[in-house]
């Protein structure tokens, strides 16, 4: 014979499902949050809650609402969709002032990109 529906084992199983629904309240997607509420409803309607269950549900619901409000206020809900453009081409060398050659430590005159002493250059080719 089967046990009647509504016994303590059934209430405990509903509590297990409701706790899973509590975790879903912290999801980013509203449909998942709604699924969490739907999972909690059978336990909330099946029998009066014990004091421990009231504390569990109450604290978790307050924390989930705080999480949602914090996300609205500080914009943690969606990542930024705009990606900065990256330039592949290097900037041209500034040859308007004299510089020091990195190879021989000689002086490269203004307007030149090649060392007159050793021939070293930033440019290839």
From TrEMBL:
Record bears the keyword Transmembrane helix: yes
Keywords noted in UniProt: Membrane, Transmembrane, Transmembrane helix
Spans traversing the lipid bilayer: 12-32, 44-70
Domain of life: Bacteria
The protein's name in its UniProt record: Uncharacterized protein
